[in-house]
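Re: beginner question about structure tokens

> Can someone show what the tokenized structure looks like for a real chain? I only ever see the sequence side.

Sure, here's an example I had lying around. Input first:
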Amino acid sequence: MTSPVFRSGTSFLALVLVAGAVLLLPSLGMGFLLDDTIYLADLDGQPVLRIAPADLFRFIPGDAAENRGWIADGCLPWWTAPDLRLGFWRPLSSALMRLDHALFGRAAWAWHAHSIAWFLALLVAWRLFLRRAVPGPAGALALLLCAIGVSHALPAGWISNRNALVAALPAFLGLVAHLRWREEGWRPGLPLSLLGYAAGLAGGEAAIGALAYLLAYEVLAGPGPLRRRAGALAPAVLLVVGYLVAYRALGYGAVHSGLYFDPMGDPAGFLRELPARLGALLGGGIAAFPADLWFYGGEIRTVQVIVGALAVCLFLLLFHGLPAGERRPLRWLVAGAILSLLPAAATFPSDRMLLVASPGLGAAVAAILVHARRAWRERGPRWRRAVAGGAFLALVHLFLSPVQLLAFQGTLIVQRRAAEAAALEAELDPGAPAGSQDVVVLAAPDHLAGIYLPAVRWLQGALAPRSWRVLSLARCDHVCTRRDERTLELATRGGRMMDTPFDLLYRSSRLPFRRGDIVEAGLFRVEVLETDGVGPTRVSFRFDRPLEDPSIVFLSWREGRLCRTSMPAVGGTLDIPWTIGPAGM
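And the corresponding structure tokens:
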């Protein structure tokens, strides 16, 4: 029998909305984190990256001369690729952040409440979508899985990632309108679907992933002959092609970044990285093995790919075990979910990239769980396999995933507090006039201490230095050697530079430094002295003034904070051991 709660669509939707809202309550205390601080500084007229408030997601325009100026000023790290471009066309999301700033100022909880409202609205859109695509208990259960899963932890909890919700909501409403047009002959469905797609694309690139469902539907399940289905698909295809052409013509996209790939500009690089990234994402979507572990690098990525492959095999086995009548209407949803991960793989794997895929994967998982429950009651052929697989997926999606959702929010709150403490405790001269000191972090333990602390300090009302520069983000020990009055060398011990995600954010590994390479970085001239073929291992920094000049403040991470560090005498060395920083990794 079907539970009365499942039979009452309104009651069940209300239950799901309450569950989704409750699980996101911790995000109200998350504050401004990472990119949020940079956006807020720019909106307040104190730019850290000189981002135009009307175009907040165009981080680095990609002009070589402009990039050189930003490097010289300390806005970009010295290892930045000369023509690095990082810019995303998200006018609707930019406008909503400006609205938040105008209405709420620095009341971060209100910004977060706004994000939660977008997610709850997306749940309503998913309910409309799933009720039409997967009627019955499986569709209702799929919605619950979407509400309690971890894929929306960052989109709904991190202000800077709200754009994914802003893109997904109108796009899925457009899909609902398209389904009504095709299956009921509802004539307003076509123009309304195109309006939804256009609004989604204005919110962010995640809308392209949502449109993967449209492609899968018309290819696998759309009514009518192939010619009619192609005609129904054509308006949306033309819209997306026009969007991509405009996107490229206006100078958006990612060029020479090791974290973001441009599938159109660098198809070979994208395809080379696709299998591993897709495996990590599917491991997260099916088995709740955190895709965000990719950020840690090393052998964990191999483990992610193996877990992803095993999860896909288990999923296919259980999906094939469904009755043909239940499996057939799910095919296009599963295909759409997997296709939606292709554009998501243009950036590093993260559970947030599963947001658009979650209703499709959730529908299939829900159908497997419903089948497992029925198999337990009926004890028919192969019931043990169905029950065992269903029990595993139930454990993963009904218990482990919501725990991860809460834990992830808690981790971000801890990181934000640690960043604030590190920013305030950095040993700068409190008596120095604002803008009179050039801060040089010799070896930052992580991205929070190395990249984001200037904006965090400004947000906390602390002394604003003239520039903030990090010499290395390598997760290893360093040795600093004084060569003369103005020159120091930094060498890694047991590691290399350009080996962390935030190194690669600014420069692709396909643009390696070579011995003898020189970078003019304003305060100092950089010369790469040694590399291991992948990244620098010894680098020289020739400053434009003596290292004892009071305007230069050298910092290193010791005892859980950035401490002022005196340079050794000429010929002397300084050991800088690596320890965990404010990011906790």
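Each token stands for a local structural state, so reading them left to right follows the chain. The first helix runs from residue 4 to 7.
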